[in-house]
Every structure is written in structure tokens, then in C-alpha cells.
Amino acid sequence: MLDILIIGAGPIGLACGLEAKKAGLSYLIVDKGCLVNSLYNYPLNMTFFSTADRLEIGGIPFTCTSAKPGRAEALEYYRRVADSEKLNLALFEEVQTVVPEAGKVYLVKTGKTEYRARHIIVAIGFYDIPNLLNVPGEELPKVKHYYFDPHYYYRQKVLVVGANNSSADVALETWRKGAEVTMVIRESELGRIKYWTKPDLENRIKEGCIKAYFNSNITAIREKEVDLQTPAGKVTLKNDYVMAMTGYQPNFRFLEKIGIQLEDNERKHPVYNSETQETNLPNVYLAGVICGGLDTHIWFIENSRVHAEQIVRHILAKAEKKE
């Protein structure tokens, strides 16, 4: 019997484990993938917008040689946190069901075993389900919703869909590694891009190294071509790969499956108390970016670290009332 079972071993799930440990509560952090699985799947050369101190959890210093840490440094830091604090982890173990039992206890079944816990914290992030283009041909292998290493696209014709950070990084990195890069952007201008990246991309577009179609959409994908709808009409481009950097969304199906309600008619946001993080299910909490629902630009590591403290404080306060 655990005091807390934490679903998700990302930075905020780890932060919840650290707070539970500090409070003397028994806990386990379960994840269907590796430690900080979302960060592991980030692009190889990704640099965080945040400084290292904003990515720290549990008051454990994050030191790195540059002002903005990269993917490799972040993975090293969170491994060090898990090891130094001897966090209780069950990795590569997917949670399948969370079922309430008598006495306000939850039975949690995974792909490997089952657990019972008095409290559940859901900290699953939103990186697993990409936003689809919903155009013919999107199912082709050439269409990628995740990006890792630019070398793969050397001398390939690459179409990048999107106008924000991920799209900018993909366009610039693949172009610098020898790809022929075109961008298709729904808006009339570039979007939310890191301040040190945006001028670089603007200059590459201005000089014509990277072709950009603004106020445009991709309408069809074929093995060696793509169709765009532009202000000037339909454009067909020769193409080897489509990099659909269109963002991601939370696993609402999992939330609903375990009984967490989604608010409003559009069902875009999970229901929870912003002061305690408790959902409509008693003793079941949300932590981290999952709290924003489809508004994935609300919560980040740096501003959702406090969720761990809020949740554990609420659990301890309820225990004191019982006594």
C-alpha cells in the first residue's frame, strides 16, 4: 500500500517524488518509457529556452557550462537527481487502469503488475500525441511528427510545417546539414521562436536560402510531391520529407478512462482545483503541463514545479484533519 503513486517520470513527476520523500510518505513513480521520456525524445541539438536554475527540482542545483542547457545536460541532471535521491522508479511500465476501491484506495494496474495507493498524481505531460494535419497522404512514412537529427535529411527536399520554435529549429538545422528546405506557415508571419533563433531564420528566408510560403496550408501529400494552397493559388512541390511540427496534445483518453472530467463543451481542459491540484476524483491530482489541456503554452517545468509542493501539502493537511 503506497501513500502516493505518481504516473509519469518527467521532471514534474520526479519533483512530486522528491516532495513525497521529504514528507516521509511512501511513493512510487511509474512511467511507460524511460526516465524523463519526453526530454529523451527531444531533438538531439535542442537548447532550452530556460536557464538551468529554472529547470531545477527539489532544490538540487543544475550546473552547466552554458547559460542555456541542452538536451544532453538536462538528461544528465535528471539522472543525477534520481540517483542521488534514490527515487523509487518503475520505468517501461505503462499504467493501464486506475480503479477506486473501498476506503478511498485506488487499484492501479500496469502492464507488469498492480499497486494500491491512497493518492494518485497524474504528471503525464503531452508529448505522445501529435496534432495531425488531417490531409490526404499524412499516413505516408515520409511524414514525420517528431524530429531528432538533421544529418538524416542531407540532400533531401524537406517541407517544414509550422511557424514556432520546433519548426524554426528543424528548418535551420536541416538546411545547415545540406537539405533543401521549404516552410509552409498558416499565419502571415513567424510565431513564438527563441530570440536567438528568430533573426537567423528571418535572414535565411530573406536571402532565399529557405523558401517560405506564408498564409498557406498543405493540402495533399504524395510519395514525391506535396500540394500547397497559397495566396497565389495551388502550388505543387517536389518533396522527400514532410516535417509536421504542429505541436502535441495531452492524452485526454487516458484521463477520461480513469474518471477525470474535462470541462466545457469542447473538452479541452481537465477539471482540477488550482489551489490543491485535486481533480473531481478524491485524492487524484494533476501536476505539470497536463494541467493546461490543449493550451500547451501555459505550463512549463519552471512554473509547474510548485504543483509538487501544493499536492503534498494538501495530502498532509487532510491527514492532520483525520487525526
From TrEMBL:
Q: What is the lineage of its organism?
A: Bacteria, Pseudomonadati, Bacteroidota, Cytophagia, Cytophagales
> Which is an annotated GO molecular function term of this record?
oxidoreductase activity
Q: Quote the NCBIfam families the UniProt record gives.
A: Bthiol_YpdA
* Keywords attached to this entry: Flavoprotein, Oxidoreductase
Q: Record keywords: Oxidoreductase included?
A: yes
> Which species does this protein come from?
Adhaeribacter soli
Record-given protein name: YpdA family putative bacillithiol disulfide reductase
Give the matching Pfam families: Pyr_redox_3
